[in-house]
Amino acid sequence: MEKKTLKFPDGFLWGAATSAHQIEGGNTNDWSEWEKKSAERLAKGAEAKWQARKTGQPSSKFPEMFDQKNYISGRACDHYNRYGEDFDIAKSLNLNAFRISIEWSRIEPKEGEFNEKEIEHYRKVIEAIRARGMEPFVTLWHWTLPLWLSEIGGVSSKKFPLCFERYSQKMAKEYSNIVKYWLTLNEPTAVTSMGYLSGVWPPQKKNPILALRVFKNLGRSHNAAYKEIHQVSSSAQVGFVNILNYFDPFKKKSYLDKLSVGLANYFSNKKFFNLTNNNDFLAVDYYFHHRLKFPAKENNANRNITDLGWEIYPEGIYHILKDYKKFNLPIFITENGLADAKDEKRAKFIREHLLWVHKAISEGVDVHGYFHWSLLDNFEWDKGFWPRFGLVEIDYETLERKIRPSALEYKKICETNTLKI
Ligand code: FCB
Fold first, then answer.
1. Residue ranges of domains in the chain
2. How far apart are alpha carbons 155 and 374 in whole angstroms?
3. By C-alpha distance, which of 140, 179, 134 is closest to 161?
4. DSSP of 215-227
5. Using a 6 Å cutoff on CB, does residue 187 contact ligand 1?
6. pLDDT tens, position by position, 340-399
7. Fold type of domain 5-420
8. Which of 334, 373, 376, 386 to mutate to test the pocket of ligand 1 (most atoms within 8 A of CB)?
9. Is the pTM of this model over 0.85?
10. pLDDT digits (tens, 9 = 90+) for 271-298
């Protein structure tokens, strides 16, 4: 069969996304404290979930999940010290953009006191990205909090928006000459629902009223940061990262299933966006497809899944992009990826998602870049280290980095700005 070449727009940004707590190592924040308290419970929970019926013993393809050490971020990938080496790898893969986050707890370890040494550290990090020909995308808040802030209620505290504003202003003043693209918050809906509704993540609340307050606080925080950053730099581009799920009805003609889809769309994709006043671009993370059967039961086909059991559904990215077209703003896909320890599905996953991204572009959606999650294997929050999301494999004993075959496939796409199908 003849091969087709799909060209992406000139200047398209090809990147990988990371977050500080998941790769740096050596952080002291609300998550590192929570990990210490929770590791035993999480390991035992995994044992109970994976107990084999026959033997009564826990059994999984990923036995690391039964080990408490799996749940402690500790030195992670030691990216804090090895960022140069990691960006060399990113450059060797022909990436022209790179997403990082700044660890607030390093910058402001005590309320109102900024740590100059850490400010210098991130300056070097950002410069190192630039020096390798990559455009830095900088997330200000990827979920972790300084301890002083979590102690007064974290994102649910009345003080949160002001604290975030002060921190954002400081970051803008320090880095606006080397950062153009700012991402204020990462996935406000995910962090609110996991921390304040399902109670799985710190601070493990199950309180819809508090969740609503958190939502409002985060909306205000984004708006304040947007203003602060623009006051420092008029050419800055500011947005927040929205995780968008693709919902479709279990039965195409069922009014009730369609109602479930409408509600799910509103609460998970739109409500937070409506709280924000200004965005220079839209940043989208895409991982999930849910087929909804009234009153909201999920009925995923789940035939093609990742190591975490998440359904792989590339077409979903097309639908969410088409839906975002109406805002008439540039769009960046700031995360998309999968846990795949054997690297069996990653190359196909990337190609198929990009095929749908390309289709959206060809139908007029203004997509400017794609960031794969993630460059490195990393600490996947309450799941710990066993899920392997990296284009690059990490040996957590030796910290050796090994480029996976799928990364070389991605490299070809980045290098040629085309996808051959
Ligand atoms: C996203 C998070 C990111 C990572 C991926 C797998 O929701 O932003 O930190 O955990 O999921």
1. 5-420
2. 26
3. 140
4. HHHHHHHHHHHHH
5. yes
6. 999 999 999 999 999 999 999 999 999 999 999 999 999 999 999 999 999 999 999 999
7. TIM Barrel (3.20.20)
8. 373
9. yes
10. 999 999 999 999 999 999 999 999 877 7
